[in-house]
Amino acid sequence: MILHELAGGREDHPVYRAMEAENGSRQYDFLRSIVSASIGIGRPFFSQQILKALNYHAIACLHYDAGVYRPCGVTVGEHRPPDHYRVPALMDDFVNEVNRVWDVTDAVALATYVLWRLNNIHPFINGNGRTARAACYFVLCLRAGGWLPGDPILPELIRRHRDAYCQALQFAHVTHATTGNPDLRPLHAIVVQLVEEQLRSAGPAQPPPPPIALPAP
Fold it and tell me: N or C: at which end does the chain have fewer Cβ atoms within 10 angstroms?
C-alpha cells in the first residue's frame, strides 16, 4: 500500500496526513531506541544504515523506495540536489567525514552540518527533511551521552520554525554552490536557539542536562 499513489498524489489528503503523523511518532520512538542502543553498546557513531532506517520509518507506506536512495533527479524549491547516480558516493563521503571529526568538532556545529548536508544531498525520494532533523538530533544526543531532556524535542521545534529554517538552508545551499563552502551561521544560530529552548523546557525540577558545548552568542 502506497498512500501517495492511492490518494492521487495529494499529500494534503486526510488519510495521508494521519499516516504521516503516525509515522513521525514511530520515527521518534525508533530514534530514541537507537540513541539508547548506541550509547549502551559503547559504539556511538554515524552510519548510512541508521539514516536509511530513519527515512524508512518516516515514509513507510507513504512513498515508494522508503529507506532507499532515490532513483531519479529531484528539484527542491530553488535547490537542485546532486544527480541521483552521485548519491551513494556522496553519502559515503559524508558519513566518513562526520565520523572522522566526531570527537574533535563542537556538538552543535556537527549536528548543524549533518542537518544541512542531508538536505543538500537530498538522498531519498521523500522524507529528507524529517530524516535530516532526526539525524541532527541523533548526533546531539550521542555527543551529549543520552537523550536530551525537554519537550518538544529539537526536530519538532525545527519543524515549527519552518520558514526561518528553510531560509537558512537555502542560504547555505547558495553559498556552497557559489564558493564551495556552505555558510552555516544562520542555520547554526537556529539550532543553538532551539536546543536551548528544549533544555529550558525541562524545568528546574529535572536533573541537569548532559554537558553540551554551546558557542558563545
Answer: C
The number of distinct structural domains making up the chain is: 1
Domain of 63, in residue numbers: 3-201
Angle at 78 between CA 75 and CA 81, to 5 degrees: 40
Contact between 122 and 128 under an 8 Å Cβ cutoff? The reply is: yes
User: 103-113: string of b/e by CB count within 10 Å (b at 16+)?
Assistant: eebebbbbbbb
pLDDT of 154 above 50 = yes
The answer to whether position 30 is within a domain reads: yes
Instruction: Judge whether 155 and 114 are in contact, CB under 8 Å.
Output: no
Confidence (pTM):
0.90
The confidence score (pLDDT) of residue 210 equals 55
Tell whether 213 is covered by a domain. no
Work out the percent of the chain whose per-residue pLDDT is above 90: 82
Which three cell numbers, joined as nine digits, stand for 124?
531519498
Is 134:155 a contact under the CB 8 Å cutoff? yes
